Automatic annotation (TrEMBL):
Superkingdom of origin: Bacteria
HTH cro/C1-type domain segment(s): 15-69
Origin species: Streptomyces milbemycinicus
Protein's recorded name: Helix-turn-helix transcriptional regulator
Alphabetized InterPro entries for the sequence: Cro/C1-type_HTH, DUF5753, Lambda_DNA-bd_dom_sf
Entries under SUPFAM superfamilies matching the protein: lambda repressor-like DNA-binding domains
Span of the signal peptide: none
Membrane spanning residue stretches: none
Amino acid sequence: MAETSAQLRRLGTELRRLREATGRTQTDVGEALGRTKTTILNWERGKTKLSKSDLVCLLVELRAPVELRKGLEKLRQEAPRRAPQWATYGLPDWMRPLVSFEQDAVAIQTFEPVLIPGLLQTEEYAHAIHTAGRHKVAPEFIEKWVAARMQRQQRLRGPAPATLHAVIAEAALHLEMGGRAAFARQLECLLDAASSDNITLQILAAGETGYGGVASNFHVLHFAEVDAYPPLGCFDGPLGGYIVSDEGDVATMVKMFDDLSQLALSEADSAELLAANLKKHRRKATTHA
């Protein structure tokens, strides 16, 4: 379920309709208000609740009829004051919009140069990652962050799951996070995921040098209503992350992903390489048990 309320969704729809009627872009309106395009996008998607002053300024900027302004302010007031569901996991501010947008996405593209993608991690592996990143995750939040990661994976299941296309560098198949046995179970889970109809998995072979200029992970989220909700990008790392909303930058990220996909092994060859690595790690886990 998306991180929003019926009132905020209705308010966001009206705000988008008003903006489009003026022929203005989210970037243009954001600059006029001293806000980012992402902030405007969050308002229009009902992801974040506007303050009264923000709504007043926005409606003045969009030249909304006076009679409509009262109704929209009422919607704003009626929106729940409780923190959205993702806040209960203690996630950092920058991540909450990402996981919420992720729930609305119909297609997700992700590139990982070192680790297994979060949406495909086992609980053991995710726990090992968060424990190793204790400079980023306070010990008291590790269990909550792991639980949030497991919850996010539900978007790939159910009656209308999102599609996931993941390109993973081969290095990720050799970094034994969580120990040999746990890592073997992670590779088994990854191989199972690769057989799912809505998941495409490709491995970027270790000998491939064509992606030398891409040193960071990144993700691109695609939504059903492309005209109203263009794709969003995201980077994250040890010191945090950020959402990319500039259409030109996101287009570049899509091109980067397409290039990586072309360089990577086919799905069949990737599954074969993954199976070989799984066999090797199972043998190692048994030998050193």
